[in-house]
Structures are given as structure tokens and as C-alpha cells.
Design brief:
85 residues, 0% strand, mainly alpha, globular, 3 helices, binds zinc ion, 47% helix
Length: 85
């Protein structure tokens, strides 16, 4: 179970990613990624990895959902390539 505060933090990070997509501003993606990484290092759950990483298969932006691509299976709504290091 996550603390409500952590949920709010994750929502805020997603908002920054959405703004990055809206404004087509990669620096906002980078900022949100930095926040997620720091949260992780401080011992907080930074949220699902697909929330802070672009997808190498379908090109989905951080914070956005994967899009179906022929020849690539999705697992739990995301491409597994996106969630493996
Ligand atoms: Zn994908």
C-alpha cells in the first residue's frame, strides 16, 4: 500500500510528463525522470518504470501508455522491453 502522499507525488510526476508531451519539451521529461530517480534513491517507490521511461518499441513517451505494434507482444499493457533494464 502506498501512502497518499506518494500517490500525489506520482501524479505530479505524470503531470510533468504530460506537460512535456503537450509542449514537446524534452527537458520536462528529464526533470520528471530526475524526480523519479531521486525519489527512488530516497527510498520511495518512484512508480511504474513505464511512467518515467520512453518505450524503445513503440516510442511511447514517459508517462504515456504503450501503443500496440505488430510483432511485439505487450505484458500488462506495456512492452516488456520498456521495463527491463
Ligand atoms: Zn511500448
Amino acid at each position: 500500500m502506498s501512502e497518499p502522499m506518494e500517490e500525489r507525488a506520482k501524479d505530479a510526476v505524470r503531470d510533468v510528463h504530460r506537460a512535456a508531451i503537450r509542449h514537446q519539451d524534452d527537458s520536462l521529461h528529464q526533470s520528471a525522470v530526475e524526480i523519479s530517480r531521486m525519489a527512488g534513491e530516497l527510498g520511495h517507490d518512484p512508480g511504474p518504470i513505464e511512467d518515467w521511461r520512453p518505450c524503445p518499441v513503440c516510442g511511447a513517451e514517459p508517462g504515456a501508455s504503450c501503443i500496440r505494434v505488430p510483432g511485439h507482444d505487450m505484458v500488462d499493457g506495456a512492452h516488456p522491453e520498456r521495463t527491463t533494464e
